[in-house]
Design brief:
about 290 residues; DNA repair; 2 domains; 4-stranded antiparallel beta sheet; N-terminal domain of MutM-like DNA repair proteins; 10 strands; lyase
Length: about 290
């Protein structure tokens, strides 16, 4: 799933390659992906991409004041094409293509653009055409951006104070903090040396400060690693930079202990027992009570 660092890099990439270009057409292949009807997607035709922004995990292309807002969800991706002039006409079907955005040809005759694709059978990729990104429910409900200057230790202290949720789930809640998903929450908690099942309200002031530093540093480092990469290279970069997520059974880079996993119905988390849980493995909640 693309998270804050990947979406930030995609926004930067589109800023370099799409801003200043005119939208030729927006072809919606998977009708379930389009979540708005007024304005219609066709209204983007003829408009110029003037800016690209990020809101949490949402991409926002400003086209002369009309916004194309994209949420890639769990299995979606953006694929840039240097030339779509020879692309076959899109037809609704069972393939991964959901939306194609074609830009006007340049001086060489090449017509660049991008395609939004989604793997798997659970189709959650979402596209909105709106006059204001805040009209998108997911954007309007976002919590603070963890890379904004306003995200301070005091702000985080206010978030965790009195909250009886486990810290792993709290970090993933987009209404609490915007942009962190399953992968980077694992990475943040490993950097903070904190159990994923620690109750947020039990954090001491020092632990809140450590968690804040881990959030900011982990995300900022991931954004920097992805900076300037082509869209096609972002997935590999994300995977190569992870220390614990999706590395169950491998040695921890910090202490050498074996990274463990806890599986759930539709996801899994990874952690290092030595670094995060005092050497005690966490039990799978499907079978027994979690250790904290």
């Amino acid at each position: 799933m693309p998270e804050l660092p990947e979406v930030a890099s995609l926004a930067e990439f589109l800023g370099r390659h799409a801003v200043g270009r005119t939208v030729l057409a927006v072809d919606v292949v998977a009708i379930q992906a389009l979540k708005t009807f007024d304005p219609p997607a066709g209204a983007l035709g003829g408009l110029t991409v003037t800016a690209v922004a990020r809101h949490g995990k949402f991409l926002d292309l400003d086209c002369d004041g009309l916004h194309l807002v994209i949420h890639l969800a769990r299995a979606g991706w953006l694929r840039w094409k240097d030339d779509l002039s020879g692309a076959k006409p899109v037809r609704p079907g069972k393939g991964p293509l959901a939306v194609r955005v074609r830009l006007a040809p340049d001086d060489t005759g090449a017509a660049p653009g991008f395609e939004l694709t989604e793997a798997g059978t659970q189709k959650r990729l979402a596209v909105y055409v709106t006059r204001d990104p805040q009209e998108v429910p997911g954007v309007a409900a976002l919590g603070p951006d963890p890379l904004a200057d306003t995200f301070t230790v005091d702000v985080l202290r206010g978030i965790v104070g009195g909250n009886r949720s486990q810290i792993k789930g709290l970090l993933r809640d987009q209404k609490v903090i915007a942009g962190i998903g399953n992968a980077y929450s694992d990475e943040v908690l490993h950097a903070a040396r904190m159990s994923p099942f620690k109750i947020a309200a039990t954090l001491t002031d020092d632990q809140v400060a450590d968690l804040h530093a881990a959030i900011v540093a982990t995300l900022a480092e991931a954004v920097e690693r992805a900076r300037g990469l082509a869209a096609k290279d972002l997935k590999a970069e994300k995977k190569s930079g992870l220390r614990v997520h999706n590395r169950a059974g491998q040695p921890c880079d910090v202490c050498g202990d074996t990274i463990r996993e806890v599986s759930f119905a539709d996801s899994a988390l990874q952690y290092c027992p030595t670094c995060q849980t005092g050497g005690k493995p966490l039990a799978d909640r499907r079978m027994s009570k979690l250790l904290r």
